[in-house]
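Annex B, item 7. Sequence and structure tokens for protein A, then protein B.
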Amino acid sequence: MNESTRRKVRVKVPASTANLGPGFDTLGMALELYAWLDMSIADETRITLYGDQMNGVPTDKSNLIYKVAQLVFERAGVHHPELDIAMYSDIPLTRGLGSSASAIVGALVGANALIGEPLTKDELFQMATELEHHPDNVGASLFGGILVAFWDGKRAEHIRVEPHERLEALVAIPHFQLSTEKARDVLPRQQSLENAVFNVGHSSLLVAALCTGRLDMIKPAMKDALHQPYRATLVPGLAAILEEAPDHGALGVALSGAGPTILALVDRDSIEKAVLESFMLGKLKQEGIEATMLWLNPDKQGVRVDVLAPEESNETLEDALKKERVG
């Protein structure tokens, strides 16, 4: 039995928020909300899912993690058709926090580690972007921090920006799902030159503000004309929050990815944090929408992967996470 067939890997991958307002399909940020994945080569495929976030996810070979892992093996020229996979996630599905991107990145990195890491991180990034069709979420989960990226249909390029030490995020996660496909279907296929120039200018200013630590410039920069005005109809209360949240303590506010989660960037030293949280929750409640509010730091590390020691391999993912949280 070779080393890879005895190996068990554990992956921890962060959630992500995409667009940050004007950076449609080009800006992303990793957040300290995680999914965990165990993977090992087996005699027969078994997929075990833990946690309420996993409801409805397939547990056979149609599972996304299984299919992505097989793409890695194919690229590396190895054959491992049977896998033992376990996954737990705190990232809600189809809420605009990169749940599919985290699964793709976790599967790519886990499968690569399982066979001795023959693929480079850039190769994994290219594969992830091809699967997701945009680099912002997958890049943020892979590299951590803030990601500025593009994909031209052939190759993705990126630069990682270190988040400012005072930057914090408040997310309002409505208790309903919104598919990326539905959120994209409401967008016009053509945009005006005026809207294009508006977003280029605002996105450029936002990147400059994030790179230079000019938190005061996030408010004017984090505005969008390409997607949020059209998607606002899918998330009641969004338009009011986008307009008014900066007056209640937000540095800037945006729809997180395709939504329905709403993201506010906040100075962690602000004295208005409780005011902002109350405002956002209240606006959604006025529309009859219940939401979970979370304060999250940017994740600066990106995906982590460990090859488990033999004495750790027999412990289930669920038990390992229980011990980690108690500890």
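Protein B:
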Amino acid sequence: MTQSAPIPAAPPAIAFRGVVKVWPHAGGSVAALDDVDLQVPHGGITGVIGRSGAGKSTLLRLVNGLERASSGRVEVLGRDVTAARGRDLRDLRRDVGMIFQHFNLLANRTVRGNVALPLEVAGTPRGRIGARVNELIDLVGLGPLADRYPAQLSGGQKQRVGIARALATEPKVLLSDEATSALDPETTTSVLALLRNINRELGLTILLITHEMAVVRDICQHVAVIEAGKIVETGATYDIFAAPRHEVTRSFLSGVTGAALPGFIARRIVAQGAGPAILRITFAGDSAAEPVLSRIGSQLGVDASILSGTIEEIDGRPFGNLTVELPAADLGRVRDFLHAQDLRTEVLGHVG
């Protein structure tokens, strides 16, 4: 019986291969990106998160040729952006839409006019422009506002216009440059829901940059963490949340996963001591709904007090952290008990 050959993995929608970007600076140079290797899967939503100045905006601008790599290769849909010029670059850009942080709408054009602009630039016949614009305006929920000007719109409505405009040329890749950072939390939620629906309905690959881990949690299937121009961690969003390896990642996560302790608790903790131990328990998947504390009490006879905790949904799966206080003498057997149930634990210290 012959064995069939394995099915080759699909090529990524976007690939950064050994990418370096150097800027001139004070008679010398500074590396904005340093040997970046990153692959963005087809049809998913991938987030790149980093602090201000980490290099994430530069990374995004390389994808549509707004910047060029100093060395290495950037590929979009199998085409080398780094080498593209003239008509090749224009053709590539039609396949890559971009949403900007500050909307970049033309003040003297209505919603309809702003959405039509990329189609006019591309030379689309006028008869087709009207139908396409109406379709996009309805897609982003702005039908009744089609003839309003940007000054008459809220921030969230302006960003919806920006999203419709980015979709005008029917791109296969959508770039989002901090698209929600200028919006209030409620509007952010609605814009992220719109992007999620667009990804699902149109099958678009979305690459977004952000400095907010909550955005990654709410929308991304994959995430890359960038620091000082280097990708320091990458993987499926759920895996990164459940077991972050890099200190920068843990710092970003602390505010959105219940890992950050309230101040009144943090001030009581010392590294070593004879007082009660402070233990963080990480729940992932099905374990998030298990009655772990009651089992500690009933099976081990140990009383554990809850200090803080939360349970989130990440990429459709539950995840949470729970911080408890328990007698130091019982710490070892409690951790053994929890590890036997595939729960991760971390000793944060002792009550001073």
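Comment on protein B: The first strand starts at residue 14 and ends at 25.
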